[in-house]
């Protein structure tokens, strides 16, 4: 098992641009240290990764319906379910799952994953400033992805221009612009 120092050394080696930022860890989540997803959850995620979203969602939904699901498992399953629903185009269902995770308040990992997903939905819905605020919250909880997004947004004017063009494109796809 790697120590926090081992992870910090690896972070410097593999992500030298973010070396001054502590690596994404769950050291503050004592209840998550020994937690691993169930085999069925891993299978559901694998189905989604192969594009079998409906099967994945059915499996995740049946797992969430079980009475023996812990709060940690429920948060993880809801985050997975939200991701699959977003990929299926069900942003309303994805938002409901994300809000459920945030209401559970079980651990930093679940919270930051939900915040990142919520930020992505905000961006897709044409609210980039809301998305940016949510990314800041996720970064404060230790999300490496959110920190990277914030760094790109802040330091790269070309990325900002690209985001602006993407927002315009999404607006056109939704029929909001001509």
Give structural notes.
This protein is an all-alpha fold and 178 residues long. It has a single domain, classed as Serine Threonine Protein Phosphatase 5, Tetratricopeptide repeat, CATH 1.25.40. Helices cover 70% and strands 0% of the residues. Helix 3 packs antiparallel against helix 4 (71-87), helix 4 (71-87) runs antiparallel to helix 5 and helix 6 (108-124) runs antiparallel to helix 7 (128-140). Residues 16-23 have low confidence and may be disordered. It comes from Galendromus occidentalis.
State the CATH architecture.
Answer: Alpha Horseshoe
Strand pairing plus helix content: what structural class? mainly alpha
CATH topology: Serine Threonine Protein Phosphatase 5, Tetratricopeptide repeat
Order of helices and strands: HHHHHHHHH
The CATH class is: Mainly Alpha
**Superfamily at the CATH H level?**
Tetratricopeptide repeat domain
Give the % helix.
55-70%
Count of beta strands:
0
Distance N terminus to C terminus? 56 Å
Q: What is the radius of gyration computed over CA atoms, rounded to a whole number of angstroms?
A: 18 Å
Dominant shape: globular
Number of helices: 9
Average pLDDT figure = 81
For the largest beta-sheet, the strand count, sense and barrel status come to: none
Whole-number count of domains: 1
Strand content: under 5%
Low-confidence stretches: 16-23
């Amino acid at each position: 098992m790697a120590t926090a120092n081992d992870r910090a050394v690896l972070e410097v080696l593999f992500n030298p641009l973010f070396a001054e930022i502590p690596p994404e860890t769950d050291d503050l989540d004592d209840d998550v240290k020994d937690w691993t997803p169930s085999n069925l959850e891993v299978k559901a995620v694998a189905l989604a990764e192969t594009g079998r979203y409906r099967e994945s969602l059915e499996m995740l939904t049946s797992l969430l319906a079980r009475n023996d699901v812990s709060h940690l498992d429920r948060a993880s399953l809801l985050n997975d379910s939200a991701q699959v629903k977003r990929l299926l185009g069900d942003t309303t269902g994805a938002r409901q799952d994300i809000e459920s995770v945030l209401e559970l308040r079980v651990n930093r990992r679940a919270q930051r994953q939900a915040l990142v997903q919520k930020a992505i939905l905000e961006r897709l819905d044409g609210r980039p400033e809301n998305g940016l605020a949510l990314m800041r919250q996720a970064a404060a909880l230790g999300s490496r992805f959110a920190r990277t997004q914030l760094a790109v947004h802040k330091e790269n004017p070309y990325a900002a221009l690209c985001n602006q063009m993407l927002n315009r494109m999404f607006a056109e796809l939704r029929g909001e612009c001509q």
